[in-house]
Amino acid sequence: MNIHEYQAKALLKEYGAPVAEGVPIFAASEAAEAVKALPGPVYVVKSQIHAGGRGKGKFKELPPESKGGVRVTFKPEDAVANAEEMFGKTLVTQQTGPAGRQVNRLYIEDGADIDRELYCSLLVDRSCGRVAFVVSTEGGMDIEAVAHATPDKIQTIDIDPDMGVTETNVEKICMVLELEGTAHDDARLLFPTLYRAFTEKDMSLLEINPLIVLKDGHLRVLDAKVSFDGNALFRHPDVQALRDTSEEDAKEIEASKYDLAYVALDGNIGCMVNGAGLAMSTMDIIKLYGAEPANFLDVGGGATKEKVTAAFKIITADPAVKGILVNIFGGIMRCDVIAEGVIAAVKEVGLQVPLVVRLEGTNVELGKKIIDESGLNVISADDLDDAAQKIVAAVKG
Fold first, then answer.
1. 337 and 297 in one domain?
2. Residues annotated within a binding site for Mg(2+)
3. Is 271 exposed, middle or buried (0-12, 13-18, 19+ CB in 10 A)?
4. Which domain holds residue 158?
5. ∠ CA 378-350-255 to the nearest 5 degrees?
6. Which of 87, 119, 242, 333 is the least buried, fewest Cβ under 10 Å from its Cβ?
7. Where is the ATP-grasp domain (predicted)?
8. In a domain, 67, yes or no
């Protein structure tokens, strides 16, 4: 689960991290009061969407030469004017795709007198099985571009979970980031604080880009991106309350209600599969035969008829879907349950596109019989290769 920048900063502030004063607004009419609450003389108006590259982004409704989704102003009235212009517009960045995201929230923040911009993130490093700091002196930039052009400028420092962030860890991070004096003193407090927030809140990513050194030598979190481990959200009702469903795909929201593992993709062949590995293989073989999957959807091993019905409805609700492939290898998941769910869904929502069904495993003959006797126009497949070829051919006409 992702949250907005202002929410991430509020959370980090609770742990004691240094962040600027700022006020989130949820309507353009709130801008003037928000600006009055800040000391000035520099005001930063930031679009709040779940995507990076906001500063370089462009609003669909504004001329191409207009400023992006993060604007620095030096007069209160300019900050208000920018907020009013940005609110409700569609911001397109390199991460949103051409459709963009509507800006329904803004964050108006006190400006900063910046000396240096650094990069700092925490994530789970799977190569060592530990939480690790990823740091670089090249802050404020696309970290992927830095990794490609100058990988030696990015260093990873993994943390022993039994020890936490030690003095040695801090010194190594400070050495990479070239922190001295006041900034070094701040770092001794900041890096253990970030690690504590990451672990206690079950984050999967905490990215600060940039982490800045102010002209007075102090450190400040200038931007913050936080993602949480969805499997641990039951432990954090306060984090769940931060969820902004307007930033999520409606189909993914619906899938979460039924505990379905669903991710929307850009293709036109809908997939319903049981098991993450089989789902990945199914998507791969669709691509092998020249088409693109419209989704990843794992109904799980213990799916009920109702769950399968819901999954099928979610797939058919996607207007991009021109064909559906159901690929089930029944172990715990019985083929007859899948068949009953598919038939119930088709009878309820109709079938406007080709449907290929491949069943194998527990109760497979019963499952096939249920589908054969349903009277539906369903294409049967013997194995995964056969199923992929049939659905691709059917979609291509």
1. yes
2. 209, 223
3. buried
4. 114-240
5. 95
6. 242
7. 9-55
8. yes
The identity of residue 96, as a single letter, is: T
Segment 76-94, tens digit of pLDDT: 999 999 999 999 999 999 8
Q: Which of 43, 58, 211 is nearest to 111 (CA)?
A: 43
Annotated binding residues for ATP, written as ranges, equal 46, 53-55, 109, 112, 117
Over residues 145-165, the pLDDT tens digits come to 888 888 888 999 999 999 999
Annotated binding residues for substrate, written as ranges, equal 274, 331-333
Is there a single domain that holds both residue 34 and residue 120? no
Q: What does the pLDDT look like over 274-305, one tens digit per residue?
A: 888 999 999 999 999 999 999 999 987 666 77
Pick from 325, 329, 292: which is nearest to 311 by CA? 325
The answer to whether 113 and 212 are in contact (CB under 8 A) is: no
**Residues tagged in the binding site annotation:** 46, 53-55, 109, 112, 117, 209, 223, 274, 331-333
pTM for this predicted structure: 0.81
Q: Answer yes or no: is 328 within a domain.
A: yes
pLDDT digits (tens, 9 = 90+) for 211-237: 999 999 999 999 999 999 988 999 999
Same domain? For 283 and 332 the reply is yes
Number of domains in the chain: 3
SS3 (DSSP) at 18: coil
**How far apart, in whole angstroms, are the C-alpha atoms of residue 195 and residue 214?**
22
Of the residues 240, 266, 294, the one at which a domain ends: 240
Beta-bridge partner residues of 385? none
129 shares a domain with 76: no
CA distance 371 to 367: 6
Asked, for residue 7, whether it belongs to a domain, the answer is: no
| CATH value at residue 92 | 3.30.1490.20
User: Are residue 314 and residue 338 in the same domain, yes or no?
Assistant: yes
Are 191 and 133 in contact by the 8 Å Cβ rule? The answer is: yes
* Residues belonging to the active site: 119, 207
In a domain, 332, yes or no: yes
**Are 337 and 305 members of one domain?**
yes
